[in-house]
Amino acid sequence: MKGYDIDGVITAGIKPESEAVIITGRSYEEAPETYQMLRGLSIFNAVYFNPMSFDKKTPHNAGRWKAEMVKQLKIKEFSEDSELQANEIRKRCPDIIIHLIK
């Protein structure tokens, strides 16, 4: 299974395959506007939001959150734009293939 980040990946024009999942560092509080944006792009994949509140999220905890979801969902490939978050994922999921989007 493949996974995709939103900001810097999907927002850069990369569209996930229909069976892929989206794992975002965006807070669950940002879900309504995120779903609206994705629907506007005709993207209907499952989305997993960072459980941190908006005011508590950081790039580090977003990376750790993504790594946890990668493990739980048995993601084999993940597209990410943040080097910092990609490194957090690699530390916790050494067998994953990360596609770093620049």
Written account of the structure:
This protein is α/β, with parallel strands linked by helices and 102 residues long. The chain has one domain: Glycogen Phosphorylase B (Rossmann fold, 3-Layer(aba) Sandwich), CATH 3.40.50.2000. It is 34% helix and 23% strand. The chain has helices spanning 31-40, 59-73, 83-92; strands at 2-4, 21-27, 46-50, 77-80, 97-100. A five-stranded parallel beta sheet has the order 3-2-1-4-5, with helices on one face. The longest helix has 15 residues, at 59-73. The chain is globular and about 35 Å long.
Main sheet: strands, sense, barrel: 5 strands, parallel
The strand count comes to: 5
Strand order across the biggest sheet? 3-2-1-4-5
The helix-and-strand class reads alpha/beta
CATH class: Alpha Beta
Mean pLDDT: 96
Query: What does the overall shape look like?
Result: globular
How many domains? The number is: 1
Oligomer: single chain
CATH topology: Rossmann fold
